[in-house]
Amino acid sequence: ILVGGLEYSPGTLHIYSDSALTLPAIIGIGAGGGVLLIAIIAVLIAYKRKTRDADRTLKRLQLQMDNLESRVALECKEAFAELQTDIQELTNDMDGVKIPFLEYRTYTMRVMFPGIEEHPVLKELDSPANVEKSLRLFSQLLNNKMFLLTFIHTLEAQRSFSMRDRGNVASLLMAALQGRMEYATGVLKQLLADLIEKNLENKNHPKLLLRRTESVAEKMLTNWFTFLLHRFLKECAGEPLFMLYCAIKQQMEKGPIDAITGEARYSLSEDKLIRQQIDYKQLTLMCIPPEGEAGTEVPVKVLNCDTVTQVKDKLLDAVYKGIPFSQRQQADDMDLEWRQGRLTRIILQDEDVTTKIESDWKRLNTLAHYQVTDGSLVALVQKQVSAYNIANSFTFTRSLSRYESLLRTSSSPDSLRSRAPMITPDQETGTKLWHLVKNHEHSDQREGDRGSKMVSEIYLTRLLATKGTLQKFVDDLFETVFSTAHRGSALPLAIKYMFDFLDEQADKRQITDPDVRHTWKSNCLPLRFWVNVIKNPQFVFDIHKSSITDACLSVVAQTFMDSCSTSEHRLGKDSPSNKLLYAKDIPNYKSWVERYYRDISKMPSISDQDMDAYLVEQSRLHGNEFNTLSALSELYFYINKYKEEILTALDRDGYCRKHKLRHKLEQAINLMSGSS
């Protein structure tokens, strides 16, 4: 270093390069890298194993899908084959069967008083002279239009006057006035006019008129059509209705039907469809009829999965073909005897010592259980009473009656799903009966049954197959009902007369909306009369209606109602299956209904004189069907129950005061109370 003249040397300077990492750092990084490498290798191994498992699962699922697909294809193929062959068979089988119409009295009684076999109006009234005199005085009052209208309106104003009472009064009045149909028609028209007035005053939607039986007038209207359309049913509409009933019954019986739940392989109702594959074979049995001799055997087709009672029913249907149900032997009174050779005779029963019991489920005996073969000889013989049979039949009948009673509580298509009961265990043994399918909700469904549940929707193709098979019969019925031109039978006067009356009422109240007029007519005739008859063919014919037939007829009746509606039905994936089933047909049926109403309105009007003459003739033909005094006696119950209210109402009305109707009613009451 030189500073001026001074020189100084500080020494030698060495410059070193810095080291990148310390030794501990190098060791740490090496260890971390090793761990990371091991982790990556482990992840790769796990990923490969997972991929292999996924591939295996995918292959298994693909196999399951292929199996499901083949089952779908098989089911659809079967349905299509059945569709092609069944229509011809059904038509052939029903040729030459005589239609077992009920006589007028039984038919009207079943509509007016459903479920009551021995109604008082069918019997002579055994009463003291003063009671008879009182009832004759009451009859004179009922034949006074103002009294009758006051009587009905007063009853309807009472809160305790129930829906059942309204129906009962309407039916009793029609029975009492059967001999004076022209008077009953005048009263009915006035009641309907009052109902329309009340409906509009209450600001109710006009379309709701006649929708539900909430008044005496509505039930009277049903009964009025019942009386006046009997001849039309016998001569025209009864045949396609009976053919539809027979077609449904035969088609249902071609496949298995569960004797406990009523579910069937063939059905129009989703709720009554067996959603499992049931293996069965058709057998032909040679049946010796009751009191029949050897050599008089009748060949009958049955299924090897049928219970003994089901077989007996099929045998009786074949043996008594064309004979009214009430005139036949019943299955409960007969034993089924299997004859093997000359000496061996085995009585087959639904339950006996051979019945199979697994855990707490007891399965009803079938032909397969007894190993009955094709071509076997069987005989229907009078039931042999034994102690075992009595105990046995009691248990079985009770189990079935629980189901039947649940079934009868409702008949609307919407409530079909709620009909399937829990299979209740028998109190004595703790076992539950089953036939083809166990109760779906039961807890001992195995995990392996999931496959059959997954595929259960596939069986809905059977609804389509059954619908296709029955289509011709449904079309024939709808076409007959919604047509003004019938073979050898004109449109009943009652229909034209009532439709004209409704149009007249609409004109009077300046209702111009064609939808309202259409709805009134639909609620008046199709809804009030035809739907009832379609759902209950046993009101018209001497037949037995099973639960599966009832479910299918309910679907047809619902379709009939939808066809008469003016509103559009928007269908989606959640729509009921019965609506989807007939979705493509309903627009066509609707056009029939519109044409029908249009054709009726174009027909020349019926004068009151012509209608009265027709009604007088109807009264002459059927005036003695019911016991008028007995009907009056039943009606008098309501006079007694609402005496003060009726007397007050008669006091308030000017016409009734002028004609002293209160005084006359009091006379009748005093005469009646004199007997008690």
How is this structure best described in words?
This protein has 676 residues and is α+β, with helices and mostly antiparallel strands. It is built from 24 helices and ten strands. It has helices at residues 23-93, 104-112, 129-142, 145-156, 163-176, 181-201, 216-228, 230-253, 308-319, 367-370, 387-408, 450-454, 461-481, 493-508, 514-524, 526-535, 547-564, 577-581, 586-602, 608-622, 628-641, 643-652, 654-658, 661-675, and strands spanning 2-3, 6-7, 282-288, 298-303, 334-340, 344-348, 357-358, 361-363, 377-382, 432-434. The protein has a five-stranded mixed sheet, with helices on one face. The longest helix is centred in the first third of the chain and has 71 residues, at 23-93. The model is unreliable at 390-424 and 441-451 (pLDDT under 50).
What characteristics describe this protein?
single chain, 676 residues, alpha+beta, 5-stranded mixed sheet, 3-stranded mixed sheet, 10 strands, 56% helix, extended
